[in-house]
Amino acid sequence: LAVQRLHPQARFPQKAHASDVGFDIFSTNSVTIGAQSTGCVPTGIACRPPLGSYLQIGSRSSLAAKGVVAVGGVIDPNYTGEVTVLLHNSTDTKYVVDANTRIAQLIPLHFAHPNIVEVSSLGKTDRGTNGFGSTG
Fold it and tell me: Could you tell me which of 91, 105, 100 has the C-alpha nearest to residue 33?
């Protein structure tokens, strides 16, 4: 994972444990997110994932437990701008993101390049068209 520091105080992505899937990413600035609002939090870094991969920004469970979650979050392999995290505050009070704190996870994932093929039917499956809670 190639990482470029864009801000002097930017911290590189880090794993707490070698077996962790995601890399913690950090805020460079203090940002206040209003109640029931979404805010942009800069990280001060740009990333280029390995060939055949993209990056997914995921929520940190410790923030999600407080009602603050990362939204959006796909970083295409050809994007070279600053990684900015959209955090949504679902609480009824403002949330302050302090500078230099872990705000999200950066998860590298492989992807495929399928061709789109129009078909007249998708065929039968066990599940069929049952969705949204149909499995219990």
Answer: 91
Query: How many CB atoms within 10 Å of residue 29?
Result: 14
pLDDT above 90 as % of the chain: 88
Domains in the chain, please, with CATH?
Answer: 2-110 (2.70.40.10)
Q: Which residue in 34, 50, 27, 47 sits closest to 110, CA to CA?
A: 50
CA distance 128 to 135: 12
C-alpha dihedral, 48 to 74 to 23 to 68, nearest 10°: 150
pTM: 0.86
> How far, in Å, CA of 76 to CA of 22, rounded?
16
Distance separating alpha carbons of residues 75 and 81, to the nearest angstrom = 10
14: which DSSP letter? B
pLDDT tens, residue by residue, 120-135: 999 988 888 877 776 6
CB atoms within 10 A of CB 6: 15
Q: Each residue of 36-59: pLDDT tens digit? A: 999 999 999 999 999 999 999 999
